[in-house]
Amino acid sequence: MAVPGKVAAFRLPPLPTVGEIIKLFRLKAQKQLSQNFLLDLRLTDKIVRQAGELKNAHVCEVGPGPGGITRSILSAGVEQLLLIEKDARFIPGLQMLSEAAPGKVRIVHGDILTYKMDKAFPKHLKKNWEDEPPDIHIIGNLPFSVSTPLIIKWLENVSKKDGPFTYGRTQMTLTFQKEVAERLTANPGGKQRSRLSIMSQHLCTVENCFIIPGQAFVPKPEVDVAVVHFTPLVQPKIQQPFELVEKVVRSVFQFRRKYCFRGIETLFPESGRLKRTEQLMMTANVDPTLRPFQLSMSQFRNLCNTYRKMCDEDPSLFPYNYREELKQKKMRNLLKPTSQTEQPEEENQL
Questions:
Q1: Which of 70, 169, 317, 344 is close enough to 133 for a disulfide, judged by CB 3.0 to 4.6 Å?
Q2: Which domains does the chain have, with CATH numbers?
Q3: What residues are designated binding site for S-adenosyl-L-methionine?
Q4: What is the predicted pLDDT for the residue at 349?
Q5: Once rounded to an integer, what is the mean pLDDT over residues 244-256?
Q6: 212 and 45 in contact (C-beta within 8 Å)?
């Protein structure tokens, strides 16, 4: 009997276990889609708890598969659950869960990389960016093959405040390979410090919540898995367009083991490259002999701000592509008569 004055907690009726659903619908993880099923509901409950308070919240689950995490989300008392599943084989099992929670579940058979999330939730949930995060959460046990391109896409959405972030600072709780999670959360000087570290941490508070051993999944992956929680920042640490920050950071980490000036050089055309690189490093006050993984967030901010000023002064700079120039140079050398062909430069020698 419900306690007077309190709303009774939502409970799913008796259902086949996730393992029984897999057998019932003859589901098999497809290696080419890097699928791994999580059957232990204690672990799925633990993942969902990392998202925070979900009672009466609106949740989008990405790639629910056989529905382990889906059950834990529904048991948390959500108002609405949107399931986006690309693999049609899982839809009948998810419909069974939908019928067990009338009016709570909406199933979309589609690809999260192309699904328009700016209209996925009711308009009344929208909050100002400066306010507390809205009652909207994204949760997912992501296939390894899609996790990195998807988080980069969502980070760009955070930067532009579009997609699922038209509603405000929507929080995300997602799984990644342990090594990718370490990159997302790495500090300056750490061996996993990378492009992902800068792109995620300049836009979000990123927390590596806990590790799930590989043997907890079916089939067992060759690596362990980490659960990572993202909360978009009110103010990004680098206040420049996403494309500009991404270009600078990608260039710096292009030659990860070399001095950072080596990667920064690739931002500029061969004509005047050395002079412009020196100008950028000096104005940004960055030691050119630091390795990329040693640079702090404030040093990346200085580099991006200075590069932006240089691009404003010379609009041809930003569209410049180092690899395209390198490719054209090699083509020109190939087309020269043999007697006139110069020895091509090494890619990492300028």
A1: 169
A2: 22-232 (3.40.50.150), 242-333 (1.10.8.100)
A3: 36, 38, 63, 85, 111, 141
A4: 46
A5: 96
A6: no
